[in-house]
Design a protein that fits this description.
The complex is a heterodimer.
Chain A lengths: L6 E2 L7 E2 L12 H17 L14 E6 L5 H12 L3 E6 L11 H10 L4 E6 L4 H6 L6 E6 L5 H15 L6 E5 L6 H10 L5 E5 L18 E4 L2 H5 L4 E4 L4 H4 L6 H8 L3 H4 L7 E3 L12 H4 L6 H23 L6 H4 L14 H4 L4
Parallel strand pairs in A: 3-4, 3-5, 5-6, 7-8, 7-10, 8-9, 10-11
Chain B lengths: L14 E2 L4 E9 L1 H18 L6 E6 L3 H13 L8 E4 L8 H4 L18 E9 L3 H11 L6 E9 L11 E5 L7 E5 L1 H4 L3 E8 L1
Parallel strand pairs in B: 3-4, 3-5, 5-6, 6-7
Antiparallel strand pairs in B: 2-9, 8-9
The chains are: A alpha/beta, B alpha/beta.
């Protein structure tokens, strides 16, 4: 190429990350998690538009495979896909061939044979999404695997906290309920822990084993068995659903649970004055939380649901757009051209991204 | 059917940096020329709008945004005409998802007024294929039904692939389609000028 004039330094673009799958929050860095939260913001705005449907993922298909029952998460992912213009295929445990003895991998291969562009899956076994992802050539998004992680819930909780409190850094977070079986708690700890948050876990001792203090090395976690103490100075109170079917498992009656661990207005006063209350739903009104608190000004329950759609739109957008390029970055290798943002654009229509 | 085991980490992310270099061929506009051009464009828009009551500017992310703000500022000097300015990120409305999206950082759009029945002027730095403007109109119409939409650009470099034209043009420039028009604005780039450049590998 003929070179005229002097060599110019191109303005450096902001870093972007590519996520092939979203299986867990634990392996992600604070920067990557912050990027995911930032990329959810434009999608939050779209929830407020009179016309909420985009054509960004038109012609793409998202497979929703829920091997374990779920209403909220499945509808949320389905809505996210629809608002991006993607189609969905649905697999539900009750009506599926799993009942007829098909293995998880066979089911995944069969779904994949229908050529979806992404697989969103929930399974009762920890690590199931990771296992399937290692055998599929399409992005896999973990929508909850056993007692391991629920990454999209962790992200939507963080987004809700950041919107309400203005930051997710250095907060006191109290998590109440069945910590032992909670993937929501684990995703929250792995996310917020990387931003300097301190955790207090509280619930019946059989649900809050001391081992939990070590699940995220470097993150201050303490287990407390007295609720009044656990709420002291909390900025965020994260409730977990009490699985009433498990209440009889430890020798604790619903009445005892209410007496010892129900979040009511009186107990909430012990938390920080501006503390917020989160709950992943579904709520058992009158069991783990009183209606007064659930419907009060400190509760973010419905904001969480709204943010859930935005976060899932961002996730689907990032993994599907990332995958549609293949493994490498052809745009990087072939004839990189001037781009206005951080991208590398090789085609004419994008040479002047601001045109 | 893909039966093999895919070799990949639990969650892979690649960081993309920008090692691209460009070479200046000619300067098309200096900072003063940009400033004078924006003043003229502000006057033209006000004159030809037939009233500014419903007028609003929408800057296209990124360099359209400071341009829109400066045009609005210039309008304030014209009989105190005060027009609202919105910000529109068109990434999600592009028609080339697979080529651009993975590297594009989404930015927030912020249109602080209802667009229904408004007289909108889209503002961008360079008009090229017209695809960005096509995407911007899709984005705008998701918000409502403006009365009129016009387009104002600092540079029109030709090579249209869409039936789209600008009503207010700072300067028309003949280009080959391997060239790039580089607009640098002090708000974003810490320097201010318009160049015709080529890329170097």
């Amino acid at each position: 190429m003929k070179v005229f004039g002097t060599l110019l330094e191109s303005p450096v673009g902001k870093l972007t990350y590519r996520f092939r799958d979203l299986l867990a929050l634990e392996p992600l860095t604070a920067d990557e998690l912050g990027f995911l939260l930032d990329q959810s913001k434009p999608f939050q705005e779209i929830q407020k538009h009179p016309l909420k449907k985009l054509a960004t993922l038109r012609g793409k298909t998202v497979a929703l495979a829920f091997f374990e029952n779920s209403t909220r998460t499945r509808i949320s992912f389905g809505t996210a896909a629809a608002r991006l213009g993607a189609d969905t295929m649905n697999l539900q445990a009750e009506a599926s061939s799993i009942k007829k003895g098909e293995t998880l991998l066979d089911t995944a291969f069969n779904l994949n044979a229908m050529k979806p562009d992404c697989l969103v899956m929930r399974h009762s076994a920890s690590g199931a999404a990771d296992y399937v992802a290692r055998h599929l050539d399409i992005p896999v998004v973990n929508a909850g695997d056993g007692t391991h992680e629920h990454p999209s819930q962790g992200l939507l909780d963080a987004l809700t906290i950041r919107d309400r409190l203005g930051t997710i850094e250095n907060l006191n977070v109290t998590i109440l309920g069945d910590l032992l079986h909670s993937r929501v708690a684990r995703s929250n700890i792995h996310l917020l822990g990387k931003f300097g948050c301190r955790f207090t876990l509280c619930g019946p001792s059989i649900w809050v084993p001391r081992e939990l203090e070590k699940i995220a090395p470097g993150v201050p976690i303490r287990c407390v068995y007295k609720m009044e103490e656990a709420l002291e100075d909390a900025h965020v109170v994260l409730m977990l659903r009490v699985q009433t079917e498990r209440l009889d498992d430890p020798p604790l009656s619903a009445n005892d649970y209410i007496l010892l661990y129900q979040l009511n207005a009186e107990r909430l006063k012990r938390a920080h004055r501006d503390a917020i209350v989160l709950h992943p739903g579904p709520i058992n009104r009158g069991i783990e939380i009183t209606p007064e608190v659930a419907d009060g000004g400190q509760s973010c329950v419905l904001e969480q649901v709204t943010n859930g759609v935005a976060v899932r739109m961002a996730i689907l957008y990032l993994v599907i757009a990332g995958a549609s390029e293949g493994g490498a970055h052809p745009a990087l290798e072939a004839n990189p051209s001037r781009s206005e943002e951080s991208g590398h654009k090789k085609t004419k229509e994008s040479a002047n991204a601001g045109d | 059917m893909f039966q093999g085991r895919i070799d990949r980490a639990t969650a892979t992310n690649d960081t993309i940096t920008r090692p691209m270099r460009i070479v200046e061929k000619a300067q098309l506009m200096s900072a003063e020329e940009i400033d004078r051009t924006l003043q003229r464009l502000a006057h033209e828009i006000v004159e030809k709008s037939g009233g500014t009551k419903h007028l609003a500017l929408v800057g296209i992310v990124r360099r359209g945004v400071p341009l829109a703000e400066r045009i609005a500022q210039a309008m304030r000097g014209i009989d105190g005409v005060d027009v609202p300015v919105g910000i529109l990120d068109i990434t999600l409305y592009r028609d080339d998802l697979s080529k651009v999206a993975p590297q594009a950082v989404l930015r927030s759009s912020d249109i602080p007024f209802g667009v229904d029945n408004m007289d909108l002027v889209l503002v961008d730095d360079v008009l090229y294929t017209g695809r960005t403007i096509r995407a911007a109109m899709n984005g705008i119409f998701d918000l409502g039904r403006p009365k009129r939409v016009r387009l104002c650009v600092l540079i029109d470099r030709g090579h249209r692939e869409m039936p789209i034209e600008a009503q207010y043009i700072g300067r028309q420039v003949q280009t080959s389609d391997t060239e790039i028009i580089e607009v640098r604005l002090r708000e974003i780039d810490k320097e201010e000028r318009v160049m015709r450049v080529d890329r170097v590998e």
